[in-house]
Amino acid sequence: MTLVQMQPRxxxxxxxxxxLVEVMDAAGLQVCDDMSVEVALSVMAAARTGRLVLCDxxxxxxxxxxxxxxSAVRDSSAYTDRLRLRDILGEQGAFTSPVATMAxxxxxxxxxxxxxxxxxxxxxxxLGILAPSR
Length: 134
Fold this sequence. Notes:
- Residues 31-70 form the CBS domain.
- By secondary structure, the chain is an alpha+beta fold.
- It has helices at 20-23, 37-47, 67-75, 85-88, 102-112, and strands at 25-26, 30-32, 51-55, 61-66, 117-120, 126-130.
- It has a single domain (16-130), classed as CBS-domain, CATH 3.10.580.
């Protein structure tokens, strides 16, 4: 067992200047972007989650999809059972670094109109998700 020491943050610390590694949620479910939309919706339902982090064959983060997005795709007239998650990513392939500040991430999320933003390391592996608290 490894002991971890936690240092309390001073009450005066400015939350805008905190880095994402301090505030991000765990990465959650990561799935391969060649998964079908229908299977992804089933995985989300079973895991009781509203989003999935997508990775390519090399484990590199390629984006994030939500249940709302996938449901809209499935209900559209263009839907086929051959449609893969990578086919619907579009602009959702955005992600950020764990050393970015909250202010930088918030600006990016507003500019791109994202509800959540994957946080990746230098190699492109998913570390977590920045999402508004509920």
